[in-house]
Amino acid sequence: MPDRENGFVFVPERCVQCHACATACRIWRDTERDAPFRRIEWRWSGAYPDVALRTVSVACLHCVAPACVAACPSGALAKRAEDGAVLVDRTLCTGCRTCADACPYDVPRFVADGTMAKCDLCAGSPELREDGAPPCVRTCPTGALGWALRSVEEKRQDEAAVLALLGRGAGRP
Predict the structure, then answer these.
(1) Virtual CA dihedral for 19, 21, 22, 25, nearest 10 degrees?
(2) pTM of the entire predicted model
(3) Cα 45 to chain center, whole Å?
(4) Residue 126 forms part of a structural domain
(5) Contact 128, 12 (CB under 8 A)
(6) What are phi and psi of 47, to 5 degrees?
(7) Spatial distance between the Cα atoms of 160 and 48, rounded to a whole number of angstroms
(8) What is the pLDDT of residues 51-102, one digit of tens each?
(9) DSSP structural state of residue 163
(10) Residue 130 is part of a domain; what is its CATH number?
(11) 78 occurs within a structural domain
């Protein structure tokens, strides 16, 4: 495993709920309507009259130790050694959904043919990554969604932060 891996960084305080990241992903990747690679979730906190709304932009975090990869019985999921990207080989996917059960971020989506699809950091589309960042990041007008080469410890912190924003602990709710 390399000392540093590519990863998303989300700063919720900067998010203005514009959905540009999710829209960019859907347009650039031409994802199926019911299987978006990036989604926006709203999280309410507090009690009246002190309530707050926080938005969370969620896509595959390409985890340091991806639970989906460990759970996949067909070997359809693998973590690419050179940059940490977690990729799915849809020709090997059986549609068993064990990856979905294992993922604490609810990332795996199943498309019309029954196979899993998810964010691949635009790995198959180098023309979309001229500056190194995927379209979802480049489209964010406030810098709430970022892209960085992160240490393993930083990525683990990012993963924990997203789980906290989603109101989840180490496993599924």
Answers:
(1) 150
(2) 0.87
(3) 23
(4) yes
(5) no
(6) -135, 150
(7) 28
(8) 988 899 999 999 999 999 999 999 999 999 888 889 999 999 999 999 999 9
(9) H
(10) 3.30.70.20
(11) yes
